């Protein structure tokens, strides 16, 4: 299998990976970006909250513009899927579907995937009337009848937050056991949020536009929009050979410079515990790239470890 050896490899071509690639390219680091073309940004046709696009822009268009910008600074972009990574003698060895790679520094920006609840009709409504992210989509459903699909603290938080946008907010648990804590339970009571605990038979919609939830025996709850609290799968399976620390949600633990617990390995974007927003992922990508650049300088100049931009670490 052919091998490529680089100073830096970025795994992930979403907002975090592309932003890091721009910074590393402009720092003249020999960088390769590998991605499997499954950025979550592709799910959003109308991004409203990303700085600089007052009339909105599609996630696909942001990615396409990002790739063009990256290529201007000499970073190679390659489509592949990384299956496994090991570290031997300070070098990262990556096994991809089509090829193997080696790098001195590795940035993981593989994101996560939101898994919609397995209810008939849900998938057709995704992005049109069924959403995952209140920070992205609550603004567009103001005054509508909103259902929160969920049964945990996050569902309760979503319902309470939605009261800023609509007086009609209901939680539908789909027959799951309630797991919110007593504080959340008390807040839901205080704000008189209705809770429907029946199993949901179907999400009724017209071309993806929600009309109602249908419970058993033909009982319906009319609604215009739904938010699903996330069943997230974080894409860290490729890191199992490195032993990087993950938190209780399975996200990669990082410090303020986006360094992981494995020397030379960095992580940025939704694969870390940061709020999963495009602008935050892009910002983290930039920070991680600056940390990598500084750490490489540090190594070549044999100086003390330098802090990342804006950070002062103990002992420096
Ligand atoms: C329906 C929907 C709507 C959204 N709307 C908004 C919005 O309006 N505004 C907003 O700010 N955010 C929105 N988001 C969230 C936004 O998409 C994410 O915040 C953003 O994409 C995160 O960027 P990232 O780089 O961390 O991950 P991603 O953009 O998901 O990129 C991950 C990258 O890693 C690659 N990858 C993963 N595993 C491997 C592997 N093993 N080998 C190689 N490559 C791999 C993928 O192919 C992809 O290129 C939305 C999300 C969804 C699902």
Q: Which descriptors would you attach to this protein?
A:
five-stranded parallel β-sheet, seven-stranded mixed β-sheet, elongated, 7 helices, FAD/NAD(P)-binding domain, binds flavin-adenine dinucleotide
Radius of gyration of CA atoms, rounded to a whole number: 22 Å
Strand proportion, as a percent range, falls in 25-35%
Structural class: alpha/beta
> How many helix segments?
7
Largest sheet: 7 strands, mixed
- The oligomeric state is single chain
How many domains? The number is: 2
Average pLDDT number: 93
Q: Mind telling me which CATH architecture of the largest domain this is?
A: 3-Layer(bba) Sandwich
**Which residue ranges are poorly predicted, with pLDDT under 50 across at least 5 consecutive positions?**
none
Say how many strands there are. 17
């Amino acid at each position: 299998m052919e091998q490529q050896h680089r100073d830096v490899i970025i795994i992930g071509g979403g907002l975090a990976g592309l932003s890091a690639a721009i910074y590393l390219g402009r720092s003249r680091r020999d960088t390769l970006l590998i991605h499997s073309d499954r950025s979550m940004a592709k799910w959003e046709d109308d991004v409203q909250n990303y700085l600089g696009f007052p009339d909105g822009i599609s996630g696909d268009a942001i990615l396409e513009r990002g790739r063009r910008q990256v290529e201007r600074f000499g970073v190679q972009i390659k489509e592949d899927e990384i299956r496994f990574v090991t570290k031997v003698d300070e070098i990262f060895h990556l096994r991809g579907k089509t090829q193997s790679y080696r790098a001195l520094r590795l940035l993981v920006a593989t994101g996560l995937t939101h898994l919609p609840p397995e209810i008939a009709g849900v998938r057709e409504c995704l992005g049109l009337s069924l959403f995952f992210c209140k920070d992205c989509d609550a603004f567009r459903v103001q005054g509508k009848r909103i259902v929160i699909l969920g049964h945990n603290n996050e569902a309760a938080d979503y319902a309470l937050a939605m009261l800023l946008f609509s007086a009609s907010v209901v939680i539908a648990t789909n027959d799951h056991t309630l797991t919110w804590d007593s504080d959340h339970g008390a807040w839901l009571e205080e704000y008189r949020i209705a809770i429907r605990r029946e199993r949901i038979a179907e999400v009724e919609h017209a071309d993806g536009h929600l009309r109602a939830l249908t419970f058993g025996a033909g009982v319906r709850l009319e609604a215009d929009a739904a938010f699903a609290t996330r069943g997230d799968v974080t894409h860290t399976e490729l890191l199992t050979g490195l032993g990087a620390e993950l938190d209780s949600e399975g996200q990669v633990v990082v410090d303020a410079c986006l360094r992981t617990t494995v020397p030379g390995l960095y992580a940025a974007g939704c694969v870390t515990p940061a709020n999963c927003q495009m602008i935050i992922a892009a910002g983290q990508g930039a920070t991680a790239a600056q940390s990598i650049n500084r750490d490489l300088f540090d190594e070549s100049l044999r100086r003390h470890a330098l802090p990342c931009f804006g950070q002062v670490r103990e002992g420096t």
